[in-house]
Predict the structure.
Amino acid sequence: MLPALTSLIALQDVSARAEDARRRIAEAPGRIQALDQQLAGALLALDTAKATLTESLTARRGLEGENGVAQQKVSKYKDQLMEAKDNRQFHALQHEIATFGAEVQRIEGLIIEKMVEGDELTAKVKAAETALTNDKKSVAAQKSAIEADVTTLKTSLDSLSAERTRIAATVPAPILTMFETYFRARKNVALSKVVDGLCEACRVRVRPHLYNQVRAGDQIIQCESCQRILYWVPPPPKTDEPAPADAPAAPTAT
Ligand SMILES: [Zn+2]
């Protein structure tokens, strides 16, 4: 095989791995931001639960105040009842006592509702606190993992870049330019293996005369459909069972 073609196969592999590392490094801030948003959401849920509880307790205190006023009125009218001067005044006072007695009962009913509500809201605050504590732990662990990942990826990217430079130096300039052009234009895949007479990347059949040239491997041949640089890997040595002429052999990524 043309030495430049051998180099391009290695270059494709190293370049694709470097691009993958770059992509994952670039995605890290977004992933960290999403985790921060998750935490902010849990914090907001806790604040909202606390505010709802405070509101409920304030309303309950208001009702307790109203109840005190109504009870005082009942007591006041009961005292006055003892000193009623006539029947008319006695009945009027009895009416007031009944009215405010009913009011006390109504407010007490509402206070009980608020007490039940307070229990429920307190449970919600506790649940939100637990959720926040768990989220904090989980987010911290995930952030550490992402940061460690980025450190590893950066180290790996450094060595991949050095390796890429070393290989690129062995490829003639026009071929390297061609490779780089199609690497960018074809989703980081500039090379394609020919398998069973098809370009493995675009699945279009390679015409017989080109196929023979690709098999010869002594010049740069591009796929007529996707323009990727084509190469062919000879089938593995024959075993007892006859292997198909074009059996895929090399694990090279395409
Ligand atoms: Zn193709």
